[in-house]
Design brief:
With about 170 residues, this protein is mainly alpha-helical. Helix 3 runs antiparallel to helix 4. The longest helix has about 35 residues. The N and C termini lie far apart (about 90 Å). The protein has two domains: about 35 residues; about 130 residues.
Length: about 170
């Protein structure tokens, strides 16, 4: 009988500790869904310098400048949207999508009229459209990941532009 009690107490202790762990996990999930502010981490959009834009005819490329500006507006409004449910993110995504469509139809500056850059902007447009579709379906944490993808694709576009300029100048020299 004494051995039976030892095993019973041991099993009870294991069950009690596992129930405590589940309670902690559920309280973490509740905190994530509550009105507490979440720590939001995402990729910061890269902005091309004014000097770079002037030297490479980007400052006259209004469609690009509108996309860049609206990407920055989106990056600055994510925190209030996620934490306070304020801001019209869907409208902001619609605006970015419209300017990306105009950008793809526009005449690129000669140096940037490359398939690589055109395809990168198309991928950015697809990601903006996908994020807009899942806006009401995903939770806040998953949405942060979707916004992060938008910024990563935008940064890829800017990095391609820098790469093109660097390689064109090496060929000319």
């Amino acid at each position: 009988m004494n051995d039976y009690l030892k095993y019973f107490l041991f099993i009870s202790l294991i069950l009690f500790s596992s129930c405590k762990q589940n309670q902690k996990n559920s309280s973490l999930e509740e905190n994530a869904n509550s009105s507490e502010e979440l720590i939001i981490e995402y990729t910061i959009p890269i902005i091309l310098s004014e000097e770079f834009k002037e030297n490479n005819n980007i400052s006259d490329w209004s469609n690009y400048n509108l996309v860049e500006y609206n990407i920055l507006v989106l990056a600055n409004s994510i925190t209030t949207f996620i934490n306070n449910d304020e801001g019209d993110i869907e409208n902001q995504l619609n605006v970015i999508e419209k300017y990306l469509i105009n950008l793809r139809k526009s005449e690129y500056p000669e140096i940037f009229d490359t398939p690589e850059l055109v395809s990168r902007f198309k991928l950015l447009n697809i990601q903006v459209t996908n994020t807009k579709i899942v806006l009401d379906e995903f939770g806040k944490l998953a949405l942060i990941e979707e916004f992060d993808k938008i910024f990563q694709y935008f940064n890829n576009c800017n990095n391609i532009m820098k790469y093109i300029v660097d390689n064109k100048s090496m060929i000319i020299d």
